[in-house]
Specification:
The chain is 0% helix and 50% strand. The protein contains no helices and eleven strands. The strands form two sheets. Strands 2, 4, 5, 6, 9, 10 and 11 form a seven-stranded mixed β-sheet that branches. Strands 1-3-8-7 form a four-stranded antiparallel β-sheet, with no helix packed on it.
Length: 119
């Protein structure tokens, strides 16, 4: 089991930046961020493999969002720059402890943190 606790959500204006954090109770194989808006399914945002920091991003956030990890602390970050109205969502942290070449597949989920972007 892996417990995940997100923090850092909140409100921002379009064009601003926010940073999300997620603390994992155990070292993961990989971790990722997803987001969900009302009436829509959960959408992959970004993922990172812990040992070599290989990353993957959704096209909608490439060049604006950066996923990173602090390995010694089992902490995941999502730096969100140039925020857009459509980035408004509940953001979820996710983790897996077993091998997968797919950085969009996870077994453990956090409770979510809200991000609201306004004009």
């Amino acid at each position: 089991q892996v417990q995940l606790v997100e923090s850092g959500g909140g409100s921002a204006q379009a064009g601003d930046s926010l940073r999300l954090s997620c603390d994992a109770s155990r070292r993961p194989f990989s971790m990722g961020w997803f987001r969900q808006t009302p009436g829509k399914g959960r959408e992959f945002v970004a993922g990172i493999r812990w040992n070599d920091e290989r990353t993957d991003y959704a096209d909608s956030v490439k060049g604006r969002f950066t996923i990173a990890r602090a390995g010694a602390k089992n902490t995941l970050y999502l730096q969100m720059n140039s925020l857009k109205l459509e980035d408004t969502a509940v953001y979820y942290c996710a983790a897996r402890r077993t091998y997968s070449s797919d950085l969009t597949m996870y077994d453990y989920w956090g409770q979510g943190t809200e991000v609201t972007v306004s004009s």
